[in-house]
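Severity: low
Component: inverse-folding endpoint
Summary: output formatting inconsistent between runs
Steps to reproduce: submit the following structure tokens with default settings.
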């Protein structure tokens, strides 16, 4: 069993709370895994050209192209993104938009697989996993766990964090905050978040090792999606 991990954060590995949490989940699965960062990659959103409709292969040639085989071959996914404006950042959104290529003519390459979603935000990362689950659902992938943590908002390092009246430091600590390393949120210093990531990894690994029934998962996700559509009619 192999798991594909994706960090959608534009920050380098040492600074990214997203990368750290995704890696933590992966390490606790007990399965073989690969962790790919989208940092520096050029990935377009879906262009609606429908070039993929015939054979479920996207015709947009960019940095997603070499990732396609990894997506298809993986048995499960751990995907993380930072919270931008209460949703996932554009790079991760574009990456997942392009999964539209797998949805034509009963293209079952992803059906019945499992996933864990991860979000990190300057105040809260919870919005990201909920948005991410929609992409999983449309591809009949079961989300087995969600992990969310608070990371270091850019306001702490922009140079104006102590004087900006609308920045995250002021929002969190009041007027005229004096920024110190100790006050900057770090997921590694959040025991409950780190435990949630480890627990999510163990759960995902257990589900995979038990030989989960992809057909049953697919049918459950299809039923869930249809019920969701009926609620909107």
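Observed output (run 2 of 3):
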């Amino acid at each position: 069993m192999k798991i594909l991990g994706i960090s959608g954060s534009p920050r380098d590995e040492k600074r990214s709370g997203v990368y750290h949490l995704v890696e933590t989940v992966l390490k606790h699965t007990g399965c073989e895994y690969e962790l790919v960062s989208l940092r520096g990659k050029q990935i377009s959103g879906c262009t609606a050209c429908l070039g993929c409709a015939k054979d479920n292969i996207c015709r947009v040639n960019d940095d997603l192209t070499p990732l396609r085989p990894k997506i298809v071959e993986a048995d499960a996914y751990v995907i993380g993104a930072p919270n931008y404006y209460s949703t996932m950042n554009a790079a991760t959104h574009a990456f997942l938009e392009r999964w539209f290529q797998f949805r034509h003519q009963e293209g079952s390459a992803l059906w019945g697989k499992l996933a864990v979603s991860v979000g990190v935000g300057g105040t809260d990362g919870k919005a990201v996993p909920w948005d991410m689950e929609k992409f999983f659902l449309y591809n009949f992938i079961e989300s087995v766990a969600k992990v969310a943590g608070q990371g270091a908002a850019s306001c702490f390092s922009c140079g104006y964090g102590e004087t900006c009246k609308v920045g995250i430091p002021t929002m969190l600590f009041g007027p005229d905050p004096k920024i110190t390393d100790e006050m900057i949120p770090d997921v590694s210093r959040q025991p409950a978040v780190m435990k949630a990531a480890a627990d999510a990894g163990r759960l995902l690994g257990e589900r995979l090792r038990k030989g989960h029934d992809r057909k049953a998962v697919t049918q459950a996700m299809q039923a869930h999606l249809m019920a969701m559509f009926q609620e909107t009619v």
